[in-house]
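Contributing: when you submit paired examples, paste them exactly as shown. First protein:
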Amino acid sequence: MSSTAERRQQIEAKRAKLAELRKARADRQISDSNRRSAETSAGSFTPRNNDVDDLLSSILRESRGPGARNGDFDSGELTPSSSMPGTPLMGTSLLPSSLSGRASRNSDFASSIGTTLAPSTNSATDNVIDREMVPRFLPDLIDVEQELFELPTKKERVIYNKEVQTMEVETETPDLEAETLQRGVSEIDLEALQAARDRELEEESVQLDKEIEEEIREIPPEELASILAAPELLEFVDSTTKMFYRAIHDYDPTRDYRVGTETGSDESEGRVKRVCEFFDEQYTKNRSITDVDWSPQYPELSVASYNKSAAALNEPDGIVAVWNLHLLERPEFVFHSQSDVLSVTFSPFHSNLVFGGTYSGQILLWDNRSKHLPVLKTPLSASGHTHPVYSMQMVGTQNAHNLITSSTDGTVCSWLVDMLAQPQETQELIHAGHNKTGEVAITAMDFPDNETTAFWVGTEEGNVYQANRYDRAGAKAGLNQYDVYKAHAGPVMGLHFHPTSGSVDFSDLFLTSSVDWTVKLWRAKSLAKPSTTLHAISPLYSFDESDDPVYDVKWHPTHPAVFGAVDGSGKFDLWNLNMDTEVPVVQTTVGSGRALNKLQWDKKDGRRAALGGSDGRLYIYDIGDMALPRELEWTDLQKTVSGMVGGAQTNGIVDGDVRSIAGR
């Protein structure tokens, strides 16, 4: 990089020198043209000496008669000679040239002009002839003034002394030209000197152009490819384009603030508005989203996991893309996996870390400060998972937390974040009542808030079980085989406990969704009183509005009575139990109507929902004011749940009954 910078500086210096030379030549040409124009204007008013001499000679040749002698006229004079005293001076300009001059004899003069002459009586003018002259013709003459000679210029005396001999000589072109003019150098020599200097400047300019062309040479294709593939260049382009797109999408300069003022209620309460959708032709085409999550630290970041693309054979099987609400054109980060990624989550305690569970059973850890590949991953061995991992969750606190993962072979593992070589704990959930195998195929898992030991799992058979990580009072570690939450007729796809927010604690309520087209509301049995015999637990309520498999369901993080669900027909259903338990308050068809696989609320205020589609698109929706709870929402929900329990008792629902409590 330093050699390139030095070469660039040399090229710039040569270019500057070339520009200076061209400017000096242009200035000199301008000064020469100005000087020539000044000389031309001055010479137009002064006739040359040769022209005046030719004019005088022609006049003299025409004015001489047969009686005139060459000695009677002085060359260049039209006045009579001074040898004839008393010659009148007035009127001579009106006489022809043959009448001027000296007359040798009166007879000759008289005969020549044909006039009568009378002798003078004045002694002082004895030699002057009185005559009466009549001119034969009057020529038109002009007055011309011309300096007929030039005084020789005084030669400059050059005196040498110490100061002159030791004085620094200026070599600039204007001083040299002035000195040349002072010493009498002819104009031809000066033009020749200037032409020589122009040739030198042109040669130097051509030489500099050649040097610049040699410096800025054509890069060979191989070298150009290596430069474009340099990691430093790629990193620079990636970071700068991200900043550029963020700046574009952070603020809309074309927003018209007058729009929406007249219809202010259109986008307020009761409306679900799509914010954006994320899709990348290169990474997510022909893939389906298997899981989504929001960043706890940065509310504008969301992550989605993708399965294999059958069309892209050279691409990695699994993809994890981190999307930014201010960067719609492409993902903020892209991570690769050798297997389909089925579950993904941000680390709530480390903003740079993303965890993923794969179809092969591996647990992968990516760091956005690193490249595309995972920085840590679990081995493919019997000590970990060997079946697909559909669910994972981080439990604990900042100083003591674990990653809990579950797979379809009934294995639940606990991992330390900085050590994925082997799990810290391993449990196999086995049910003795199963006919062919005792394994419990886990498809969904969740921990209640503020709980790190007890958790609930949904299975392929449609039942929900409670399990413990450790032995506790009245319960052993492992699966609780006796308390069975039985109602679904198909695999449980989603399971979520109510968040502990607000004045009333509803953390014992949880929702499940299944491919049997239903969403069910459950109340978890107290952990202090586990059953010792088989006991089937029925749901509090069943929501049977959907006509397609319901793939996911989530409680709202801030509103106690609101939850969302997504199904196989691409519908996003928003429920509010305090308003209506029969139908959703808002039902929205998302995208092209293809199945929605996952739903996740943002962790900041719950206004936005991320919906993962089977078409590989991640949709972001805003529910507006429906995310803002009133003060009485918790007490109203308490009354609603009490009514559900009373209705169940009134309708005589027994354990294992799948009917809706409302008698639908």
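Second protein:
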Amino acid sequence: MEKANGKPQQPRLRLLAALCALFWVVIFYFHFAVLRRSSPMSPPEQTLSLSSSLPSNSQQHHRQQHFVVDGTPSDESRASHSSKLKPPPESKPSDARRAPPHHPLPSSSNSSVPKRQLPSHSSKLVPPPLESKPSDAHRSPQKNFPFDRALQTLENKSDPCGGRYIFVHDLPPRFNDDMLKDCRKLSLWTNMCKFTSNAGLGPPLENAEGVFSNTGWYATNQFAVDVIFGNRMKQYECLTNDSSVAAAIFVPFYAGFDISRYLWGYNTSVRDAASLDLVDWLMKRPEWSVMGGRDHFLVAGRITWDFRRLTDSDSDWGSKLLFLPAAKNMSMLVVESSPWNANDFAIPYPTYFHPARDADVFVWQERMRKLERKHLFSFAGAPRHDNPKSIRGQLIDQCRKSKVCKLLECDLGESKCHSPSSIMQMFQSSLFCLQPQGDSYTRRSAFDSMLAGCIPVFFHPGSAYVQYTWHLPRNYSTYSVFVPEDDVRKRNVSIEERLKRIPPDVVKVMREKVISLIPGLIYADPRSRLETLKDAFDVSVEAIIDKVTKLRRDIMEDDEDKDFIEENSWKYVLLEEGQRTVGAHEWDPFFSKPKDGNSDSGGSSATTAKNSWRSEQRNQS
């Protein structure tokens, strides 16, 4: 017994040692495996200053701005980030409209954008705070974008302005108001002072002949969109003083008024001075650094060729605003855009009608439906003797010989063409209105005729179909008739016979379509706001917001088209939803670049712009 008690028993010691080892294995496993898996260490989120990584090559997606960010997020990260955002809205036919290509600009390391007070005329809106969802705490690590807050406002169902906020730059007055104070210098041919009155609408029109409705009619100048649009923006219901939530940023620069002062008799330095001053001012603003200007837009109420000077020769026409790298990043709204460039967008010419209420529009539409139209077709214009390719002379000859055509011949002297009452009266009495190219692709007359419920007849796709894609249906046959210029020029097709072949019931449907388009083709009185209808301003702003929103989503999803060909910009607007590749098109002859003088492109931009000024001289009042 003593011998047995003096020695430890071996089996017990082995069992105790095994239990002790197992205990420590369990402790270490629980600490390093279970606890670490339930509480991961998240790396700090990386905030990107997008303007600091601008690529040097111009690439676009359906004329959308392209943005390449250094450090592409993983698929898991992108999926997690996009899961908290609303899915992109269903694309409309016009959603494929283009936006400026990106160009390398000075970058800023500070991507934060401070708040600032809106100009005194604006009612500032501060968006409700965004509530983070419980699931946000469990998202995968991801990269932040400077426009995250702007996209997140789409999620706030209680905010009627979610995803619609506009931030307006408070520009120095030399870029806008000072021009109006010196209004006599805005045009060499016309005293623009009276046309800048009434918030840019011009003097009220008398209605002695009963052609107009009782209210809302003004002698509006066709180049007054700068100030009309700017004043309408002051009434926009979703202005904000916090640019970090803005869906887009508006630059209230009167670009059209600026260049109109210096087109004749001034060297290129004078013509470019304000444009260079503007981009210098903008690029110093913190708002610019967020997207390098790709969320910025401005309005110029003139044709694009006034801003596309190709050289620095004083003999060349216009300014080079649209060729400045910064301006190429912005979107510029003009009354006629370039088929071959991606940073301008066409918006309607102003008409004479600027309603203050929905009821004014409804009354006018109903009146246009009930009119008796005694003329099959009509034309208001003058021949272009200095342009051998113009078909105007042939159209005038056909109209003169026809018993069902009404003709208003315009010349340099006194003419009924300069009378809004005479023009509108003719359009109201016609089923179809001929709209050949003006001195450039487009004419204000096209919008005056549609306002009168007259079905437009176009002869070049650049006159409307590839221009006003935000405001007109893609299916042009629903509201217009297309007769190729060569059918008139070379084959002498009879316009009268062509129009008579359209069945009366089809004509009725087409006219109703034209009348239904009226609200989106006119600019409401800037001093008021329509209750439910969307005017040309509303349609344009909505399209810009959709464009910028889509661009931002493409950036987040790394889904930009790297193969965009800017010279084919006009083709991209004709693609069906989801398509990205363009090829040969039946309209290629209309938009072939002028190389040997035999193309049907309408000539050089300088010639086009100068011809437009001749028209302005003819129409002075």
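If you have annotations for the second protein, write them as plain sentences, like these:
The chain has 21 helices and twelve strands.
The mean pLDDT is 81.
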